[in-house]
């Protein structure tokens, strides 16, 4: 059974940084494209960033481009999201998600597994 466990969330000040981590288990991590998504209170789930299975391509939501960096370590079965220059509008619960094996895109929703999420709160 695939399992994704996020960590690293917390409270940050405007302009601060946080690094989210996601530990993957129960499947061959290096075979799957992955993504981070987020959900703010009262809002729909939103795709934030995606990365190909071998890390060769990454994509970002326009509002986080230049501030967030997605990366992965296939040897350690880990996915990361480095978040810099945080803004209050980044406040949300962040989810580590897995695209289906047959997926050819790394943009947008459409996951088959996701974790419980980690809360990120940015104060102004």
Blueprint (SSEs and pairs):
Blueprint: E1 3-7, E2 10-13, E3 18-25, E4 34-39, E5 46-51, E6 58-60, E7 68-73, E8 78-83, E9 92-98, E10 113-114, E11 118-123
Parallel strand pairs: 2-11
Antiparallel strand pairs: 1-3, 3-8, 4-5, 4-9, 5-6, 7-8, 9-10, 9-11
List keywords for this structure.
seven-stranded mixed beta sheet; 124 residues; mainly beta; 11 strands; 48% strand; 0% helix; four-stranded antiparallel beta sheet
Would you summarize the structure shown here?
This protein is mainly beta and 124 residues long.
Your description of this structure?
The strands form two sheets. Strands 2, 4, 5, 6, 9, 10 and 11 form a seven-stranded mixed beta sheet that branches. Strands 1-3-8-7 form a four-stranded antiparallel beta sheet, with no helix packed on it. It has 124 residues and is mainly β. It has no helices and eleven strands. The protein has strands at residues 3-7, 10-13, 18-25, 34-39, 46-51, 58-60, 68-73, 78-83, 92-98, 113-114, 118-123. It is globular and about 40 Å long.
